[in-house]
Amino acid sequence: MKLQFKLALYNTLTKMAVIAILGVLVLVSINRISVNHIRQRLLQKKTRLITNLSGVELENLLTNKTFTDYNLLREEYIVVRELKIDEQPVKRKFSQEQRSIEDNNEAFQILVTSFSYKGKKYRLELGEAMTTVDQLERTISIFTLAVMVAAVILSLMADLAFTRLLLSPFYQIIDRKLNKVNDPVNFNYGLIKTSTTDFKVLDQSISTLMQRITTLFLTEKEFIANISHELLTPISILNTRLENLLNDEQLSTEGENKIFASLKTLARLKGLINSLLLISRVENRQYDKPDVISVRQTVADVHEELEHRLPMMNLHFGTAIHEDHHFQGNRSLFHTLLANLVSNAIKYNKPGGTVSITSHSSSGQYMLIVSDTGMGMDKEAIENAFVRFEKLGSEKEDSHGLGLAIVRSIAAFHGIEINMQSEKGTGTTVTINFKLSTPVPSS
User: Are strands 326-329 and 365-372 parallel, antiparallel or unpaired?
Assistant: First the structure.
C-alpha cells in the first residue's frame, strides 16, 4: 500500500474513532439532558399553577376533593387533591412511572409535591410523557450516524487530496531519481520543487550519493578497459611465444607436453578473464539493446553452434518451439545466455541422454524451457548455482564456475526471470520467463 493511502487511512480511522466516541457521549447524554429539561418544565408549570391559582378556581377544581385533567394528546396531566388531616405533606419528588391512560401504557416523568393555600394543604402531581424524549433520541441518533458517515467520507477525500499534494515531491523523487539508479551517467540532478524541508534534504542527499556512484561507475568502466588491455595483451604474447617454441625441432616430447599444458592454462585464464569482463560490462550497463530478438531463431543458432558436441556423448537434441516470441534486447548477449544453458545441459548430461528446448505461453508469460537428463543437483547446489565460481559439484577442468553467473547477469539486464529445478540423478530444468507486453514486430 502506498504511503499516501496509509496516511489517509490512518487519519480517517483516527477521526472515525473520535467521532464515534463523541457520538456515544451525545447519545448517552441526550436522555439525561432531556429528562432534566422536562423536570425544569414541570417545576415551571407548578410555579405558574400555584401563583395564578385563586380560591374560587381551587374550590371549583376540588369539587370532588380531587381534580384530574389530561391534555388533548394525553401527553400531559395534572392531579390536585386536598390532603387528609393525618396525611403528611410530600416533599418535592421526581419519578418516572408507567401510567395507564385509556388502556394505553405510557411512560411519564412525574413531579409530586405539596403546597398550602389559605390554611389548607394540597397534593399536586404533574406528569409529562416521555414519548417526545424517545423521538428526540431516535432523531439525534439518526442525525449523528449520518454526520459520522458524511464526516468519514469527506475526511477520507480531504486526506487523500492533501496527502497527494503533500507527498507529490516524494513521488517525483522516486520516479525521477530512485528509478534511474541503474543509469547513473544519465541521472537527473535537478532539484525537485518542494517547500518540505525533509524532502529537500532527501533530494540533495540522493543527488550527492549519485554523484559519488557516477564517479565510481566511470572509474570502474575505465578500470575494465585497462584490465582488458593489461591482462589480455600479456596472455596473447605468452601464447604466441609458446606456440613459436613448439616449432623448434630440437624440442623434446616432455617439453612439448609442458608447453601444451601451459597453452591450455593460458586459454583457461583468458576465458576466465573474458567471462569476468563480460559480467562486469553487463552489470554496468555497458551494452545497448538495439535488436529485435527472435527466440526461435536464437534456439536454432545455438543448436547449430553446439551440435558437434552431441555425438561425443551420443546425446539426442530436441526442440519444440510452438510459438515464437520477439523482444527488444542485445542479440549477442541473449545468444550467450542460451548457449551457456545448453552447454551446461550437454556437459553435465549422461551418455545417451537427452537435451530438449520447449516453449509455453500462459498467464501473460512466455516460457522457454531447457531440460536435460543429466546428473542433476541437490537443493543446496540449486541455491548456489548462480554464484560466481560455483562449479555445481563438478570437477571438470574446463569449468570456470561462471556460466550461470553470466546467465543471471544477462537475464537481469533484459528483465528476464530464470528459474531452476533439479533432482539428483534425474536431470535439470531451467525455465526462462519473458513477461508478455506489447508485441515487438519481427525484423
Answer: unpaired
Q: Is the overall model pTM greater than 0.70, yes or no? A: no
Q: Which residue has the cell 569476468?
A: 276
CATH code, 291-435:
3.30.565.10
CA distance between the termini of the chain: 41
| pLDDT 10s digits, 296-354 | 999 999 999 999 999 999 999 999 998 999 999 999 999 999 999 999 999 999 999 99
d(CA 267, CA 275): 12
